[in-house]
Amino acid sequence: AMYSWPDEPFEEMDSTLAVQQYIQQLIKSDFENISLILEPPEGQDLGVWKYEHLRDGDGSTAKRTSLANANELLAKRSC
To answer: What domain of life is recorded for the organism (predicted)?
Structure first.
């Protein structure tokens, strides 16, 4: 099944797919918490974070909602 791995802190993820895995983990844990899904972990490159959100467009409602709100929320963070 999709999302079959156990949850783990982002800092402990050592895979090249860590950002993608972490985003999917956030969606799995609370798909309605858009602010949480869009908030990058401390120290995460913001460009990579945005790219992974766009790259992993799987058509889910959570993804579409996240992308619809991304510009507003990420613009506030960049200020």
So the answer is: Eukaryota
